[in-house]
From TrEMBL:
SUPFAM superfamilies: Glutaminase/Asparaginase
Species of origin: Georgenia halophila
Ranges where the Asparaginase/glutaminase C-terminal domain occurs: 207-314
Protein name per UniProt: asparaginase
Domain of life: Bacteria
Keyword Protein biosynthesis: no
EC number: 3.5.1.1
Domain L-asparaginase N-terminal: 5-186
Family: Belongs to the asparaginase 1 family.
Enzyme class: hydrolase
Length: 333
């Protein structure tokens, strides 16, 4: 059995530049990226390389990522662990979908902020670290992680927090759970790893809208989301879970007719709650589900997975609350 499978999807780690502009849709194959990474710390383990896509991550769709999930699922039957190279722009969403589908399987996602042909690239070291992590016992039950800039971050809660800096990812309140550098692999925390929520073979997810809060927001985006066929809605609230009076009223009306509404905060750190009347308290009283410390983007995918078709149990809210509790993002009932 080969040690690892590398699934290459493109992104800046494979991109070449011309006149200062990067092209992520005409990148180098995974084998070339792997060669450079092997040179960093002399990784000699066996790696089965598969090029599954060759695009910037902003061009990926949910069905594309669900196809990647299936490729990772198949790879896990042939190898001890999976490493995925991926653009950084949507890495936090892909890593989260992988964790919703695969639970505790050892999958490390990485990429770079600098192009393959940069004179001081960060990609080879990031991939070297991901290979070292995924082939180490420490990764065996840690689930999906993002390995980047020497840090090992859990997929749940990971967030791209810098546009260009090589230290591109954080997971406030949740990570890093480990480090990989010249001294080797160190794991110093056990992340909560809920069991899979997505059924094997899922090829698409129901449409879920994301509605942002901003000074003076009214119900226009909510109306547009419902009119466009959304089957659920995540509101990126102010602070600890608040919304404008107009948005609170519109969401309570939706909840009263059984429309799924989930709360997440636009702050980037900490959990949402029902602390204030006129906002979070009213939404939770009407049946909105608070998504703990999940970002609006990860909460959107969680709701979509909880609403996914072909489930015998149709209670999306129960499924979400159970998963959130197992993820350390909600109360245990
Ligand atoms: N650093 C990167 O990989 C950004 C790139 N635009 C991508 O997400 O594919």
């Amino acid at each position: 059995m080969p040690g690892l499978t590398l699934l290459a999807t493109g992104g800046t780690i494979a991109a070449r530049s011309r006149d200062g502009v990067r092209n992520t849709s005409d990148g180098v194959p995974g084998a070339d990226v792997l060669d450079r990474a092997r040179a960093v710390w002399g990784f000699e383990g066996e790696v089965d390389v598969r090029d599954v896509a060759g695009v910037g991550s902003s061009a990926l769709t949910v069905p594309d990522v669900l196809a990647l999930v299936e490729a990772a699922r198949a790879a896990l039957t042939r190898s001890d662990g999976v490493v995925i190279t991926h653009g950084t722009d949507t890495m936090e969403e892909t890593a989260f979908l992988l964790s919703l589908a695969l639970g505790p399987a050892p999958v490390a996602v990485t990429g770079s902020q600098r192009a393959f042909d940069d004179s001081a690239p960060d990609g080879p070291r990031n991939l070297a670290a991901a290979l070292a992590w995924a082939s180490d016992r420490a990764a065996a039950d840690a689930g999906v992680t993002v390995v980047f800039a020497d840090l090992v971050l859990p997929a749940i809660g990971v967030h791209k927090s810098a546009t260009l800096a090589p230290e591109a990812f954080t997971a406030p309140g949740r990570g890093p759970i480990g480090h990989v550098d010249e001294s080797g692999v160190r794991r110093h925390a056990v992340p909560p790893v809920p069991g899979p929520l997505l059924e094997p073979g899922t090829t698409d997810l129901p449409r879920v809208a994301l509605v942002p809060q901003y000074l003076g927001a009214d119900e226009a985006e909510i109306d547009a989301a419902v009119a466009s066929g959304a089957q659920g809605l995540v509101v990126a609230t102010f602070g600890s879970g608040n919304t404008t009076p107009a948005v609170t009223s519109a969401l309570v009306r939706l909840l009263d007719r059984g429309f799924p509404v989930v709360m997440s905060s636009r702050t980037g750190s900490g959990a949402v709650s029902g602390l204030y009347t006129g906002g979070g308290a009213d939404l939770i009283a009407a049946g909105a589900v608070p998504a703990g410390d999940l970002s609006p983007w990860q909460a959107r995918l969680l709701l979509a997975a909880a609403l996914a078709p072909d489930r015998s149990d149709h209670d999306w809210a129960t499924r979400m609350r159970r998963w959130l509790a197992d993820a350390g993002a909600g109360p245990r009932s």
